């Protein structure tokens, strides 16, 4: 007891991370950083334990670039899909066929509607024309032809659910839900609820024996990565029978397995008389664990795509052209989907940032066939609380009472025990349990216990001169020393320009370097970039991994802060190109940078906590610059600047990229990229005139895009694509225009692109 009383401050300090982790585990204060770490742990563990083998039972018929080249642009006519269906169900004898494609609108490509319109119009007096068109109608009704091809076959179609204030419905859902609403106790939401849908045409829905929704759910505070997919969803509208409908993956599995019934299984009891939580779905003799949203964790087999090695990919063009031997796909489960980049059916998953959506369904079906299923048990929060408490008490007492060497051993042993038990439960019993909160607590407890006082004292001793000397260019420090009384660390609001510069391809480069070599490389790159910033009178704020942050306009007032920042950005991009020239000669991979620039009012001064302070800038304008840096790779440019910076830096040639709504802002922001400085002597040169003409045409493309004139936008864009087919910006808008052309115009559309993550 005497030792405890003597060391109570250290014990109390060590228990602070325990309380923080408990608040997270119990839901009192959820921390996004811990959730992201849990996602990272889950993804790493999933990749490390994937089978990495081919599942021969499932084949993906891929609408790839080769298919589009040979068969024409998407969407294909329904008579062509009918030929594809007959080939797969007839000549190939597939066991089941699922379409990761939606057929919401009728096929008018045959011209039947136009012929009937002509027969009722100018040529209505022509004898026999109407009857001849009626005679030909069955051969021109592509939807009916497609429906006939599916009749009596094991085919599942895809559809999607929606939820809006005014429910809308297109097409026809399956005649009955897989589970009636009465199958679940009242008083609890057992699946995501929807009130609208976009489904296949009635003629197609009636012909196919099954259909499944394609919706995937991503947590709103997550990272946009698909780790779990709902197996059932609740429809609450009035355009079809209310109840619980199945996903495409579940529908295809049931088709291939003889359509076994689906039944819910609940956890034992319910606290306080409440409805018990859903624990799993019973599909025949298969028990599928699900979470509170009726979602199943997807146990991916391996990397996605035709070369991922998990599933056989067959080009849809090869199937249509009869290049497969008869019966080559006999008794296989076939999923039809698209991986062509222009069709935008790619998803972010733990095993790939551009994972084919159709292969997500294939992994679900494969996992069900193998009974290789992961479970997030309902007692996971309790496990998290117990692990945090047990490890926290051990560390609080052990680290405070043991000598330093033994305390280090105890901390390592505690971390190993937490990881080992969690990994054993995952590997042996397929249980997905939280780990990040306990690990974070253990690391913070060790850091607080062993170094809290040291860091407080070391940060407190940092003075004004040393701080300015660390972050401000030497030439500015000399100017400040002339009248030192004018400058202080006191926070103030100023109109400034801030920049974020992030290194691309750094991970791939770091994997090929030894630590010492990597350190030397980073030092060299940061020296080059910092030198450019200093040359243009910028202040380096901080280095964050492979990112550097800088600002202009403080501590010395600089009216031309925006112009200096843009010049620095252009020179930094040129410096990276020089580095890449050296890399080419040495065989190293090239790197690139993404730079975000914004100008506006921000707070600048000595900020931070008692433990850590720095001369920095904060504010909404700073956050926007950080978001703009993350957009550079999306638009295929090195520099993204806001409209505010463009207005303050007129001495450059600018190209508008988009109007964007970034996370954390309610108003759209126009974004631009500088193409270079304006040179009066070269203003009339052929190259300058050509560039000016291209920018004028690009402005017309954006104007057409924002007024939803997709055809005009594409016509205006085609010459730009011809002149510069590799430009990511033009390719991006070509894909957008092609995608938007398939949708009706939205009267509330403001033309802004929304980005929910950085």
Keywords for this entry:
single chain; about 750 residues; alpha/beta; nine-stranded mixed sheet; eight-stranded mixed sheet; 27 strands; globular
Determine the fraction of residues in helical runs and give it as a percent range.
40-55%
Q: Give me the number of helical elements.
A: 25
Overall residue-averaged pLDDT value: 86
Classify the beta-strand content into a percent band: 15-25%
How would the global form be characterised? globular
Sheet having the most strands: 9 strands, mixed
What's the total count of β strands? 27
Model description:
By secondary structure, this protein is an alpha/beta fold. 45% of the residues lie in helices and 20% in strands. Helix 19 packs antiparallel against helix 20 (561-586) and helix 24 (710-723) runs antiparallel to helix 25 (728-740).
Task: Summarize, please.
This protein is of the alpha/beta class and 758 residues long. Helix content is 45%, strand content 20%.
Question: Which SSEs are present, and which pair or pack?
Answer:
Elements: H1 2-6, H2 8-25, H3 32-48, E1 58-63, H4 65-71, H5 78-91, E2 96-99, H6 112-120, H7 129-140, H8 142-150, E3 155-162, E4 169-170, E5 193-194, E6 196-198, H9 202-207, E7 210-213, E8 228-230, E9 232-235, E10 243-246, H10 248-256, E11 262-266, E12 278-283, E13 286-289, E14 295-297, E15 312-315, H11 316-320, E16 333-338, E17 346-349, E18 352-356, H12 357-370, H13 380-401, H14 404-429, H15 436-460, H16 464-471, H17 474-482, E19 492-504, H18 506-511, H19 515-535, E20 539-544, E21 547-552, H20 561-586, E22 592-608, E23 613-618, H21 620-635, E24 639-642, H22 643-648, E25 652-661, E26 669-677, H23 686-706, H24 710-723, H25 728-740, E27 753-754
Parallel strand pairs: 1-15, 1-16, 2-3, 2-16, 3-7, 4-6, 5-9, 22-24, 25-27
Antiparallel strand pairs: 3-6, 8-14, 9-10, 11-12, 12-13, 17-18, 19-21, 19-22, 20-21, 22-23, 24-26, 25-26
Helix pairs in contact: 2-13, 2-15, 5-8, 6-7, 10-12, 13-14, 13-15, 14-15, 19-20, 23-24, 24-25
